[in-house]
Write a structure and sequence with these properties.
This protein is an all-alpha fold and about 90 residues long. It is built from four helices and no strands.
């Protein structure tokens, strides 16, 4: 059975939500990151790489928001790093 992939528009919408939530101090980081991870298999390899790169940069620069948001984004980053390893 073939795995469903997101359309270009769907992937763009997820990226918009991701970039909006990155650095926010609200419920959005947790909500958006959980929703994206639920659809992990549907993203292109390029998208997965971008999630890792941009989340790493956010954490390194301290743009993550509050302490709870740092935990959310750290978990999100680990999820994608582990996911990329599983894809190899």
């Amino acid at each position: 059975m073939r795995q469903k992939k997101l359309t270009d528009s769907e992937e763009l919408i997820y990226f918009g939500a991701f970039r909006y939530a990155l650095g926010r101090r609200s419920y959005m980081p947790d909500t958006v990151s959980e929703e994206i991870m639920k659809h992990a298999k549907e993203f292109t390899p390029r998208a997965k790489t971008i999630f890792v790169k941009e989340t790493s940069e956010c954490l390194a620069e301290g743009w993550y928001g509050d302490a709870c948001d740092k935990t959310t984004w750290s978990n999100f980053l680990k999820f994608w790093q582990d996911y990329q390893e599983d894809d190899k």
